[in-house]
Design goal:
Subcellular location: Cell junction; Cell projection
CATH class of the domain at 96-168 and 209-306: Alpha Beta
Helix content: 25-40%
Domain PH: 377-473
CATH architecture of the domain at 96-168 and 209-306: Roll
Strand order of the largest sheet: 14-13-12-11-17-16-15
Radius of gyration: 28 Å
Number of helices: 19
CATH superfamily of the domain at 96-168 and 209-306: Phosphatidylinositol 3-kinase Catalytic Subunit, Chain A, domain 1
Main location: other
Largest sheet: 7 strands, antiparallel
InterPro entries: Band_41_domain, FERM_2, FERM_central, Kindlin/fermitin, Kindlin_2_N, PH-like_dom_sf, PH_domain, PH_Kindlin/fermitin
GO molecular function, one term: integrin binding
CATH topology of the domain at 96-168 and 209-306: Ubiquitin-like (UB roll)
Amino acid sequence: MLSSSDFASASWELVVRVDHPNEEEQKDITLRVSGDLHIGGVMLKLVEQINIPQDWSDFALWWEQKHCWLLKTHWTLDKCGVQADAKLLFTPQHKMLRLRLPNMRTVRLRVSFSAVVFKAVGDICRALNIRRSEELSLLKPSGEYFKKKKKKEKNNKDPVIEDILNLEGSPTISGPRVSPGLYSKTMTPTYDPVSGTPASSTMTWFSDSPLAEQNCSILAFSQPPQSPEALADMYQPRSLVDKAKLNAGWLDSSRSLMEQGIQEDEQLLLRFKYYTFFDLNPKYDAVRINQLYEQARWAILLEEIDCTEEEMLIFAALQYHISKLSSSAETQGFTSESEVDEVEAALSNLEVTLEGGKADNTLEDITDIPKLADNLRLFRPKKLILKAFKQYWFVFKDTSIAYFKNKELEQGEPIEKLNLRGCEVVPDVNVAGRRFGIKLLIPVADGMNEVYLRCDHENQYAQWMAACILASKGKTMADSSYQPEVLNILSFLRMKNRNSASQVAPGLENMDMNPECFVSPRCAKKHKSKQLAARILEAHQNVAQMLLVEAKLRFIQAWQSLPEFGLTYYLVRFKGSKKDDILGVSYNRLIRIDAATGIPITTWRFTNMKQWNVNWEIRQVAIEFDQNVSIAFTCLSADCKIVHEYIGGYIFLSTRSKDQNETLDEDLFHKLTGGQE
């Protein structure tokens, strides 16, 4: 029987385990509490009972059974649902985390384990001086990612010591401690656009950052190339299914690290998750551009994205050039104003493409939409028919291509009119073999129509290819990005053009290159080392005059021009289908791909999307498009929340504009990606 005094107090015992940083073992503290005591009161009682004078402000209560933080300190225990059987842990909210950056360097810094990942990544990027943190996220690597490395360490008797950049004093604990200047256009540290080093007058803005103590060039300069042996030991996806496995580990941006089972001092990958790089500026983005270049470089070397051998040599030449400039002592010095102006002018066209923005100096009469008209050759693949191209007179206007038997019949009815809005445009080019082709995959009700166009020379190809790319996005040639797109295609073709007239100097220059470091292991196996070095140096002649940041941006731009760029793969099962397919998610579309052949089956554009949602009970993503088209699929290689967040994230990033303040609408991000779970 209980006495009346027990009923009056209605108190009970609550056991809280204290995770004290200075003690090896966690201690249990027993408190006498009542249901109407608020969380803040519980923490106050705890601190009084522990009786150790220190700053407890970063500590909070973690509920182990419910897997959640009790951060609303004004809520009572009753409101939270905490009873005597609850296992609570009193632990710091900020803990150490090891992050492997895109350049394969590992940094160790203190990160919030209680804030949602979206916010935690923002704090990490501020500490590392990377703008536009919304484009990045944290990836938990699969077991296969480290498998080869572990096997190597097992065979090696000497212990492998990982080179870690320790930023333990990193100011990620709270927003105000970080200099607000990191995102301010007037206070952001200004980098020399040629060398990438911070200008001395603005070095003071690094005073609050751990990067002031360590040389910031560690993150802003590319690392020396890895040895071919180290490259061979890294995990390389061999199929689309393997690539889909790589994307299974993205963390949920709407939940905290602790809620997702991340342990203190665990290793995660910090990567660019969304392939829409907004407002890249060489003055402010030395670290961001370098890390982006490094992510692109490793994607090429580890064959996470496919490219032709000709393209591989271009990437190798640019890597070799960047490696030489980065290691050269000359690039560390100050440069003259004229050189800075020269590189800024050279980069202005690049920025238009990289941002998808508009050039200010282009004034066009939008009422007069240009058209292209020329003789091209066409081929439609059919079974059991050899590839035979036939010449027609083509007219490109608005976002459509019409073709006629000859020029005289242009005013009549065309043989066929192809609407390119929403189509896939794939280059089919071999500069050495003088092949300038465009492959078009045009969406129709039951899949994709495949059409090949063949141009006669570089200029014709650049004009038609640029028009096709813009039309696929719903833009015409009147758009101001058309001319820069033509110029970028031409510059990429010139880089591919092997200059047989220029003789590569033998001897010394050949000696300082290990060509296998700059190409994928599979490409390296096809050629002898000397032959590969000669071909890379031959391709290097076309990029040898580029400055460091320009070369990195060129590499990123060439990466962006690859057909598979920006596609993130997942293994899914579509509703009503009996076999598994690959779903490719891009910044503007979804693609259903045959898992066995890798051939696209159909494409759906985000611009035609009416709504999307998730049935959490059966873990199914359902999407509705215009014209009564609807699809539904379950995810097999990852949680459906990851795919849902990708779609919502790209739609969120499409709302950004240069005019708006650089503070992000975090609520809108969670609304678009959360799925109202």
